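Retro notes
What went well: the complex prediction finally ran end to end.
Inputs used:
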Amino acid sequence: MIRVRDLKKHFRVHERSSGIAAALRSVFHRTYTLVPAVDGIDFDIRAGERVGFLGPNGAGKTTTLKVLAGLLHQTSGEVLVEGREPRRREDDFLKSIMLVLGQKQQLLWDLPPSETFELNRAVYGVSRGTYEETVRELTDLLELGDLVRKPTRALSLGERMKCELAAALIHRPRLLFLDEPTIGLDVSMQAVVRDFVKRYNEQHGATIILTSHYMADVERLCPRVVVIDRGKLVYDGSLEELVARVRPEKRVVFRFACAVSLEDVTALGRVVHHDAGETVLAVHKDGVNGVVTRALAEMPVRDMTVENPPLEEVMSELFARQRAVHEAGTR
Amino acid sequence: MSLHNTLRACPAMLRIGLAGAVAYRAELLVWALATTLPLVMLALWTSVAEHAPIGRYGQPQFTAYFLSTFIVRQLTGSWAFWEMNSDIKTGTLGARLLRPVNPLFAYAAENLAAIPLRLVIALPIAVVLLATVGGKCMTRDPVLWGIFGLSVAGAWLLTLLTNLMVGCAAFFLESSIKLMDVYLVFFFVFSGYLIPIDLFPDALRNIVEKLPFRYQLGLPVEVITGAHERTYALNHLALQWVWIAIALLATRSAWRHGLRRFSAFGG
């Protein structure tokens, strides 16, 4: 469905120092630098996949999404979405995709979201019957209720995002690009959006490509992740494998019936957290059985769980390693 | 983007444009008040012409001229460049570009949709105009009324295209607002908004008649107030549509170049 080969997107950026003298100088003489936002990446995405694009700020995630949606033209490389070149922005292509930017909106600010829905119905040529069925379905899934009849400006951020998603799906796109769809939302609203996106993917077989800084979004939605850093592809594969590769350890959480000393638990493994009733240990994945057996035999264990390390930690470690490699390379 | 898609979406775009204009009703009223300058000029010029006519303009002719100017301005005014400037600078243009409809048509539809509301303001003035100056200062020739209709449509289109062209400048400049300010200075002076064009000295008038500004406002006003014969009006109507063709090509080119730049740098 999506084929990307050696994609590069370089921006020419005007640079100047601060201060009035520099401002005046820039009127007559401007200096530019070339910023490689995306610098030669390759990947393929099959129809119906849910893929997370991860990377630190400025890694090139949003730029890649915008190139895939046809909003930005690549500097070089091949990009095909459903066999079409996005940069040509042909009608059939535009009708098959949608890009939702969490920080920008397509809803008409002073009108109720229902007006944007109607506009999209006309613009995308959706029949009245299909439109009403879609709106009914979206209203149920997103619990929109009366929200669609209130002016957009009167809605909260979370309510607006739900309506944004509904407006984006009026024409039932087969390919949905989501750029930070849960940014600024509270925890329960994030969960609503995540569940909805997952259900839309499952019910309609739509392909979902998502960027997010909330690792919970990625964990819940994306079996596959593509990690980009400084415009380059760092990893492309399953989330499980990424975690296993970067942090080949598990978090073993013990809850004790009575207090256990720090010295005792330190003997089992690296202590991440310890208090009177609970201890969290970081243990290599091959050593989990031994640690658990020993703890059960020697300590008053009331309850225990084995978890993956938090994805945030995995990602920070991955990016820290990348930074170290980059700095070593530039030295 | 196919014209078929755009035409199919036109009724919805017009309906929603009207809903938007109603939502912004306070802003619309302020805009209407801001266009009352012809009424100020009416007071000024009628007092100047109290004792003797100026050119062909006595007090009734000035009344007819400036009230007509007010009405034509209500029917042909455009603010599309504000929308474009903001859409380009904030990146909101991206949302418009994702739809399978040319954004330029969407701007045009939004502009056109506000006209019924402006008519609510313009129509009472038209009634006052007819009641006070009667038919004596207005043309009775049905052909000239037809030319008036076409020239109003042309004035709207030319003003819209100018707005879109200046709006496209935001692709290349920090902001296109200053450029519009400069354009408006020429528009106010040379369109007949403040001074009827036929009061200009001959040499200057000959130049002004070849510039686009008068075709955004002055021509329809002159035609309806009986300043011209049929042949002269038709010739100048043709010239107006030549300017429209030029503006159309220039806007298309500015949009394409601008879009290329937007696709290269922003979005």
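What we learned: Chain A has two domains: 2-243, 248-308.
What to try next: split runs per interface for comparison.
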